[in-house]
Amino acid sequence: MSESALLTADEKQMIVSSYRLIAPISETVGDLFYKRLFETQPQYRELFPEDMGKQKRKLMTMLAFIAKCLDWTEGQWRQNVQPDEDLFLVVLALGRRHHVLYKIPDEAYGPVRASLFWALEQGLGEAFTKELHQAWSKLYTALATSMQLGAKSSRIKMEFGYIE
Ligand code: HEM
């Protein structure tokens, strides 16, 4: 049977623990990520603002929020969750902004994944084991799929005649 695409409880905890290692060096990991992205995909540089300081912090804040959500217990998910605390809704809206405001095509998610994983590997060193790589990989696929769904929902909205 093929391996499940769903993150297991162990995989979630692996990601949460690895994020605790990344948090104190998040500036460096952010720098490495964008440096690698712009070296390998120079055409993406113009999509971002000149000063990348704010952008780096926004990305790392989002990763911290994602790690916090993965650490939730089953019980917490069953309680009433505010929309701005609901990982799926937050990521859908993020994907919608990437499509509508930043004009990011679905194809860009692959190169961004490669640069992010390269930066994680640099930051975590030997702690970035094969199992941890697989867990982050599943997480990234879930994030990218949800963001692309958010993008698609805004395209459908346009087809219905909403003004964007
Ligand atoms: C899992 C994937 C991704 C995550 C978690 C992510 C996260 C973020 C966050 C948190 C922001 C801050 C602005 C906001 O919240 O709207 C942002 C902005 C942005 N992202 Fe992403 N992003 C992802 C994928 C991508 C991809 C594939 C690209 C393509 C190059 C991209 C390009 C941009 C650009 C151009 C901005 C706006 C910069 C600006 O004008 O301030 N992102 N992203």
Helix content estimate: 55-70%
Number of strands: 0
Q: Provide a count of the helices.
A: 7
CATH class type: Mainly Alpha
Structure notes:
- The chain has a single domain (9-159), classed as Globin-like (Orthogonal Bundle).
- The protein is mainly alpha-helical and 164 residues long.
- It has helices at residues 9-22, 26-40, 53-70, 74-78, 87-100, 109-124, 130-159.
- The termini are far apart.
- The mean pLDDT is 92.
- The structure holds protoporphyrin IX containing FE.
Helix and strand layout, with pairings?
Elements: H1 9-22, H2 26-40, H3 53-70, H4 74-78, H5 87-100, H6 109-124, H7 130-159
Helix pairs in contact: 1-3, 1-7, 2-3, 2-6, 5-7
Bound molecules: protoporphyrin IX containing FE.
Protoporphyrin IX containing FE (HEM) is lined by residues 44, 47-49, 55, 58-59, 62, 94, 97-98, 102, 104, 108-109, 112, 140, 143-144, 147.
Overview features:
mainly alpha; Globin-like
Give a concise summary.
The protein is mainly α. The chain has 7 helices and no strands. The chain has helices spanning 9-22, 26-40, 53-70, 74-78, 87-100, 109-124, 130-159.
